[in-house]
Specification:
This protein is mainly alpha-helical and 146 residues long. The chain has one domain: dinb family like domain (Four Helix Bundle (Hemerythrin (Met), subunit A), Up-down Bundle), CATH 1.20.120. Helices cover 65% and strands 3% of the residues. It has seven helices and two strands. The protein has a two-stranded antiparallel ribbon with strand order 1-2. A hairpin with a 7-residue loop joins strand 1 and strand 2. The radius of gyration is 16 Å and the shape is elongated.
């Protein structure tokens, strides 16, 4: 499944990096490698938690907005963010187990959406963030030898 491939690639963007490297801001936005993976966990909860079950974001324990999901706390480490992401992915898999692509998911603010639409949206978002991660990681690794 392409979603799983991109989930793995995004998580692997943190391989071998120190906490300082993973938190390094190289662009004016809040985008960091660690923040991207933390945001990806948010994406999983929104699209496979909120959209599938209709559970509100506050009740899921996630930020209200995508922008907030990039915010890193002092407690966020490479290990803790990866563990949170792995848990979010597992919950996503459980949420859609047994559903088919035509199943309407009731919990999105746009109204009911087919699971297939949600999967394509998540794939697009993960692919975009994998591209961001590739560039950020390349800059971080290059700075080690510079």
């Amino acid at each position: 499944m392409f979603i799983d491939q991109h989930r793995s690639m995004l998580a692997a963007s943190l391989d071998g990096l120190t906490g300082e490297e993973a938190r390094k801001r190289l662009v004016p936005s809040k985008t960091t490698l660690l923040g991207l993976v933390k945001h990806a966990a948010f994406v999983e909860h929104v699209w496979f938690g909120e959209a599938v079950t209709g559970t509100r974001r506050a009740d899921l324990g996630i930020p209200a907005t995508p922008d907030e999901s990039f915010k890193l706390d002092e407690k966020d480490t490479v290990e803790s963010v990866l563990a949170d992401y792995a848990r979010a992915v597992e919950l996503s898999r459980q949420a859609v187990a047994g559903l088919d692509g035509d199943t309407l998911l009731p919990g999105n603010r746009r109204g009911p959406l087919p699971l297939r639409w949600v999967q394509q949206h998540v794939l697009r978002e993960l692919a975009q963030h994998c591209g961001h991660a590739d560039i950020l990681r390349e800059l971080i690794v290059a700075a080690r030898s510079g």
